[in-house]
Amino acid sequence: MRIILLGPPGAGKGTQAKDLVTKYGIPQISTGDILRKNLADKTPLGLEAKKYMDKGELVPDSVVVGIVRDRLKESDCKKGYILDGFPRTVPQAEALDAALAEMKTPIDKVLSIEVPDSELVKRLGGRRTCRSCQAGYHVMFKPSKKEGVCDSCGGELYQRDDDKEEAIKNRLKVYMASTAPLIGYYKNKGMLATIDGVGDMKVILDRMVKALKG
Ligand code: ADP
Ligand code: ADP
Ligand code: ZN
What we know:
- There is one protein chain.
- By secondary structure, the protein is of the alpha/beta class.
- It has a domain at 2-116 and 180-213: Rossmann fold, CATH 3.40.50.
- It contains nine helices and eight strands.
- Strand 5 and strand 6 (136-138) form a beta hairpin.
- The protein binds adenosine-5'-diphosphate (2 copies) and zinc ion.
- Zinc ion is lined by residues 130, 132-133, 135, 150, 152-153, 155.
């Protein structure tokens, strides 16, 4: 199964992707995680991307398209995958279409997760992320067992620079301008399923599984 998770920052893409990985045994491909890993390792790619990420701007299309093209060629993607946070612009979606047409492996479904802005701001403001494994937590909605420590790997939890107030506002703006048009793009292709992203995380997972079966 090849799936795209579409939705504004804080919609729960990363959270749900982790559960879909467990359920379907296919990898999660998060361009945000890949960029942050490069940043932590201080690669030239990571240092270049940081300039955009800290302000909540998008990294140039050519950079992320290159990352995803390479990643899709790895052997664990043969069974399928979950794209989380890519594509984020129409040119990225077109580049993905072209790459997948060449590989003869079309996307099965695009799940568009809908959450109102007021809720997104609360989610992003309280999000904590593991430095080592990138697992996501929330100080109120999904606290770790021990404060500041990752349940799965014992790594240190931190607040992303772009989860601070100014960057959050900008990211929501960037989403509306550059990413929201993808909803129409995939709807026109008959690939879109809309998911209500408010409520219990397990209930939202059930909604996704139903949409993937339908
Ligand atoms: P995205 O990857 O779409 O940016 P995340 O999965 O990182 O979103 O979720 C953003 C924040 O909201 C995280 O702190 C996460 O723990 C929390 N969260 C995710 N889903 C829900 C939910 N259904 N209800 C409340 N909080 C949630
Ligand atoms: P979110 O929680 O907002 O969904 P991500 O972890 O997916 O955050 O992305 C964090 C940042 O990484 C984005 O604000 C952007 O700067 C960069 N980024 C991630 N994916 C892409 C992409 N597909 N195109 C451009 N920039 C991206
Ligand atoms: Zn961890």
